[in-house]
Amino acid sequence: MSHLLSFINVVNFKRQISKIRCMEKSKEELDKEILLVAEKIKALRLKAGFTSYETFAFTNDINRVQYYRIEKGQNITLKTLIKVLKIHNLTLQEFFKDLE
């Protein structure tokens, strides 16, 4: 009976390790997608003629630190994303349609 319990514990342990690895891979994939969004937002700013994120943020009434974090892929809410896209006259659909 103790061998069976040991075997079950090993199987459960291996399943947990497998789940953790899967979650880490998903996190890495998610981080890559977040960086793609951040890079596209930065590209929109540059295309609009703003070489400085600070000037863009000030001109468009966005907190400077918050906007810095957005371009670095650190923090963004849907509300802020929509606000930034409205500044660039884009909808969510237009923004995400060619993002891959």
From TrEMBL:
Domain of life where this protein originates: Bacteria
InterPro entries: Cro/C1-type_HTH, Lambda_DNA-bd_dom_sf
Annotated signal sequence range: none
Domain HTH cro/C1-type: 41-95
Protein name as catalogued: Helix-turn-helix domain-containing protein
Source species: Flavobacterium fragile
